[in-house]
Amino acid sequence: MEFKHKSVLLDETIEGLSIRPDGIYVDGTLGGAGHASEVCQRLSAKGRFIGIDQDQDAIIAASERLAAYEDRVTIIRSNYCYMVNELKNLGIQKVNGIVLDLGVSSYQLDNEERGFTYRVDAPLDMRMDQRQSRTAADIVNGYDEKELYRIIRDYGEDKFAKNIAKHIVAARAKAPIQTTGELTEIIRQSIPMKIQATGGHPAKRTFQAIRIELNRELDVLRESLDGMINLLDDGGRICIITFHSLEDRIVKTIFRKNENPCTCPPDFPVCVCGKESKGKVITRKPILPSAVEMEENPRSKSAKLRIFERRYKK
Ligand SMILES: C[S@@+](CC[C@H](N)C(=O)[O-])C[C@H]1O[C@@H](n2cnc3c(N)ncnc32)[C@H](O)[C@@H]1O
User: Fold this and answer.
1) Residue 196 clears pLDDT 80, i.e. is over it
2) Where are the transmembrane segments (predicted)?
3) Quick one: pLDDT band at residue 202, thresholds 50, 70, 90?
4) Which residues make Cβ contacts (< 8 Å) with residue 12, sequence separation at least 6?
5) Pocket flag, ligand 1, residue 127 (CB < 6 Å)
């Protein structure tokens, strides 16, 4: 299957990176190399680009797309949570820019075999990293009702989370739920017909919730962000595109904390905690896609771009 993915907030991200032709740039969510190829085009032979993705299909597609820049490109199959170590292995301690374009690519969603979509019947998989042993089926058949309710409510923001979790547990008591089609049918039965006729696809939110849980998307982001900010050289920027309100909240909170880490009570005349600012939040409000982009690429509708610039103490 051809790797198709339309990059979101492309111009805004490239402008936000403020690329130096001789700089070192990292994309932690390489995908089809849409953002990456724009970065590479702007680098001179002295520049360097490192692309990371945990998905083998993305690595193959990106390697082909970036072949023309092979003198300055290194592609690594890994989770971006290992970025600091992966770069250390290449002898790189500091970089000038980092991009994260979170979530799944359209290719992953559209590829029937990967089990991300409720549109076709396929094994319940949803792994971004095919080397991982746990799949969506393990969550659907293994989590207790309370845990299922929590993830569908929090990560899917589904009003019918309680009912969906109850129906899943009842259905799997008869036989394990093995396919996306079986799960979709169970979700349909958990949501009133009236709502199904008006809202989007009834399974959309639950599928999103299971995918986020399985791939530990929020935990990985939360655990990695400080380390990535520390990787930035003076003036270096990190640009992060999120698609979920909880992801965006994590980015906003950690950026703010790095700008102003002081933990002294507000009435202290001087700072005594000794925690120093790591830089500046460039986007007080997130950058959103234009009306034209949303029209051309509906997937971009929930996207938000936030940018942080590292500033060293002079
Ligand atoms: C939205 S796509 C990126 C698309 C890319 N920016 C482009 O324009 O072609 C997200 C990609 O990030 C990868 N990904 C998501 N989380 C990851 C993680 N924690 N570590 C490595 N790759 C990850 C997915 O496998 C997917 O290929």
Assistant:
1) no
2) none
3) confident
4) 287, 305
5) no
The verdict on pTM exceeding 0.85 is yes
Average pLDDT of the chain is 95
**Does ligand 1 have an atom closer than 6 angstroms to the CB of 86?**
no
Separation of 152 CA from ligand 1 center, angstroms? 22
Cα 94 to Cα 277: distance, rounded to the nearest angstrom: 18
User: From ligand 1's centre to the CA of 303, what distance in Å?
Assistant: 14
Strand partners, 74: 50
Q: What is the pLDDT of residues 109-166, one digit of tens each?
A: 988 889 999 989 999 999 999 999 999 999 999 999 999 999 999 999 999 999 999 9
Sheet with 48-53, edge to edge strand ranges = 73-77, 48-53, 24-27, 95-101, 232-242, 304-310, 279-281
Mutate to test the pocket of ligand 1, among 12, 27, 29, 52 (most ligand atoms within 8 A of CB): 29
Angle, alpha carbons 27-32-36 (nearest 5°):
35
Q: Does the annotation place 136 within a ligand binding site? A: no
Phi-psi region of 209 (alpha: psi -120 to 50; beta: other; left: phi over 0): alpha
Is 34 annotated in a binding site? The answer is yes
Locate the ligand 1 atom nearest the alpha carbon of residue 7 and give its number: 8
The CA 35 to ligand 1 mean position distance, Å, reads 11
Tell me if 134 sits within 8 A of 214, measured CB to CB.
Answer: yes
On the CB side of 10, CA atoms within 13 Å amount to: 15
53 labelled binding-site residue: yes
Burial class (CB in 10 A: 0-12, 13-18, 19+), 32: buried
The confidence score (pLDDT) of residue 185 equals 95
Question: What angle is formed at CA 311 by the lines to CA 306 and CA 314, rounded to 5 degrees?
Answer: 165
Closest-CA residue to 71 (of 38, 46, 97): 46
